[in-house]
Amino acid sequence: VSNFSEESILNYLGPYKGNGSAVLRSLQLVQELLGYVPDSALDIIAKNSNVSRAEVYGVFTFYSDFRSTPPAKAVVKVCVAEACQASGSESLISELHDKGYDIHKGNIKDDIQMEQTFCLGNCALGPAAMVNGAPIGRATCEKIFAATSAVTA
Amino acid sequence: MDSAALSMGANEVAQAISDHAAKNGLDVTVVRNGSRGMLWLEPLVEVETQAGRIGYANVATDQIPELFAAGLLTGSSHDSCLGLVEELDFLKDQTRITFARVGVIDPLSLADYEAHGGLKGLRNAIAMTPANIVNEVTESGLRGRGGAGFPAGIKWKTVLNTESDQKYICCNADEGDSGTFADRMLMEGDPFTLIEGMIIAGIAVGATEGLIYVRSEYPHAIDVLNQAIQIAIEHKVLGASVLGSGFTFNLEVRVGAGSYVCGEETAMLESLEGKRGMVRAKPPIPALVGLFGKPTVINNVMTLAAVPMILADGAASYQSFGVDRSRGTQVFQLAGNILRGGIVELPFGITLGDLVNKVGGGTHSGRPIKTVQIGGPLGAYLGVESWEVPMGYESLAEVGGMLGHGGIVVFDDTVNMAKQARFAMEFCAEESCGKCTPCRIGSTRGVEVIDRIVAGEEQAKNLELLEDLCEVMTDGSLCAMGGLTPLPVRSALKLFPADFGIKVEVK
Question: What is the ipTM of this complex?
Answer without folding.
Answer: 0.96
